[in-house]
């Protein structure tokens, strides 16, 4: 008997079954937990991907124009189709809706959303009900749509029933169920490439009282109205402590690798192949705003040789039409310097200024310029469109018509032609050299917020990127020298589309 008991005690056969029997509940529990985690993770992925898609679709419409809220809602409702699995509802389609685009926060279908003017600087700072008002766009769509830069989309939480019997451990049946949701924030990023490092203070910026000195027009209204767009604007350079205000201009930080000297800055303005890329919310002004040879950077576009030398390669060539109402004071087919030109002498006329300058404290004209005098002086035997007799064109329209109709080489009664002198660099035909491209800033508001636009300020928001037609050469390199321009186009919903090749628009996820 004793031997039998000892043999039984030492016998280890079948012990594995005992261990399995003991561990089986744990093994099954871990298996169920792994399945639940996988199901919950897949559900969250479905919801997060759908939320990201809704946010990106909505953000792509947030260009700051009227109707952008309604377009964002329409995009989310019609362009996004996502399914969710593994919730208590089984497979179902996530849907949005179109409440009308009149509220800065709304909900429809399975999602809710808020239009935001800003987001926290740190990703770790969540947007909650407690701090939402800090980032929320104005409730008035007329204001809120202009300042909206982001959209936060939240998918309604979905119920999830776990297989793992948590209630067996806790004794609470509710522990077997919970919800899974998702939140995404996306924004609209607009930028330009191949742009000159110039900023122009918005001539149509509203002041704190909602008025301006440009006849009450906004920038977007001005660019969409030909009668306003042809007004001549006198730009003056910011610098040496001069405050930036409507109609002033300055310089942006040049692209990396260009250099910081005045000559390097001038070259990036003068070249026909600029390499600068600028984002609408993050431009930086250049320290010092030193003028240097910037006058030459503008004037080489008119076939005027730089006074201090330089600009001697083909990328600094003049426009194909440099008519400016001036002939060299000395004989010969030279490429003249500015001081070698006689302007508006007998029989020569450049594009005239406006008859009166009632706007922007005398620095913006009324758009009424002497077309008949200009045409008879330069093209007395050529006809122009009859519509010009009733609706005055812009100077830029006339300039383009001269090129299109082969009138550039036609001599004025005083002998001037629009063709650059042979001694200058060959004309550039790949781009329009008489157009100046720049970032349009609301300088009053930026300086009121503490930014020094005559020095080095960073991360400045851009109202729009624009193009301006240079109507005449810059007379001197001094800080108070005037750059005379016509507004041609701006980026955005009211633009004319001529800047589309420069624009890089995209929606971007932020969190």
UniProtKB/TrEMBL annotation:
Keywords: Membrane, Transmembrane, Transmembrane helix
One Pfam family of this chain: Tad
Limits of the Putative Flp pilus-assembly TadG-like N-terminal domain: 15-60
InterPro entries: Tad_N
Presence of the UniProt keyword Transmembrane helix in the record: yes
Bilayer-spanning residue ranges: 15-35
Lineage top rank: taxon: Bacteria
Protein name (record): Pilus assembly protein TadG-related protein
Organism: Mesorhizobium montanum
């Amino acid at each position: 008997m004793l031997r039998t008991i000892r043999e039984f005690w030492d016998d280890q056969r079948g012990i594995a079954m005992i261990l399995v029997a003991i561990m089986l509940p744990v093994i099954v529990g871990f298996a169920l937990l792994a399945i639940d985690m996988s199901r919950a993770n897949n559900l969250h992925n479905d919801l997060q991907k759908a939320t990201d898609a809704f946010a990106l679709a909505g953000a792509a419409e947030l260009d700051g124009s009227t109707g952008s809220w309604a377009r964002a809602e329409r995009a989310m409702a019609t362009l996004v189709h996502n399914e969710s699995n593994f919730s208590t509802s089984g497979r179902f389609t996530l849907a949005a809706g179109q409440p009308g685009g009149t509220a800065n926060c709304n909900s429809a279908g399975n999602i809710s959303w808020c239009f935001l003017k800003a987001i926290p600087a740190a990703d770790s700072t969540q947007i909650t009900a407690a701090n939402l008002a800090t980032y929320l766009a104005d409730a008035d769509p007329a204001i809120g749509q202009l300042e909206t830069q982001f959209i936060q989309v939240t998918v309604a939480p979905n119920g999830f029933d776990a297989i793992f019997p948590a209630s067996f451990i806790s004794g609470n049946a509710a522990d077997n169920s919970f919800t899974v949701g998702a939140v995404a924030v996306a924004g609209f990023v607009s930028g330009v490439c191949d742009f000159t490092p110039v900023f122009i203070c918005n001539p149509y910026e509203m002041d704190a009282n909602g008025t301006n000195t440009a006849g009450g027009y906004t920038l977007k209204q001005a660019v969409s109205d030909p009668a306003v767009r042809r007004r001549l604007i006198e730009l003056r350079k910011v610098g040496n402590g001069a405050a930036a205000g409507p109609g002033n201009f300055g310089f942006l930080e040049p692209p990396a690798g260009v250099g910081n000297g005045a000559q390097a800055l001038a070259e990036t303005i003068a070249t026909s192949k600029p390499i600068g890329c600028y984002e609408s919310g993050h431009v930086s002004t250049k320290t010092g705003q030193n003028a240097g040879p910037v006058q030459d950077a503008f004037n080489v576009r008119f076939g005027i040789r730089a006074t201090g030398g330089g600009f001697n390669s083909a990328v600094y060539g003049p426009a194909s039409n440099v008519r400016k109402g001036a002939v060299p004071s000395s004989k010969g087919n030279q490429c003249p310097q500015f001081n070698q030109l006689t302007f508006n002498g007998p029989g020569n006329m450049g594009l005239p200024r406006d008859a009166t300058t009632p706007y922007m404290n005398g620095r913006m004209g009324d758009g009424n310029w002497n077309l008949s005098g200009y045409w008879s002086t330069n093209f007395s035997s050529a006809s122009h469109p009859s519509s010009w007799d009733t609706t005055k064109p812009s100077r830029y329209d006339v300039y383009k018509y001269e090129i299109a109709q082969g009138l550039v080489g036609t001599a004025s009664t005083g002998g001037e032609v629009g063709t650059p002198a042979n001694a200058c660099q060959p004309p550039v035909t790949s781009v329009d050299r008489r157009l100046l491209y720049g970032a349009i800033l609301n300088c009053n508001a930026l300086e009121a917020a503490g930014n020094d636009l005559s020095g080095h300020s960073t991360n400045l928001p851009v109202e729009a990127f624009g193009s301006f037609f240079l109507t005449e050469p810059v007379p001197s390199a001094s800080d108070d020298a005037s750059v005379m321009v016509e507004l041609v186009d701006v980026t955005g919903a009211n633009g004319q589309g001529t800047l589309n090749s420069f624009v890089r628009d995209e929606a971007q996820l932020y969190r």
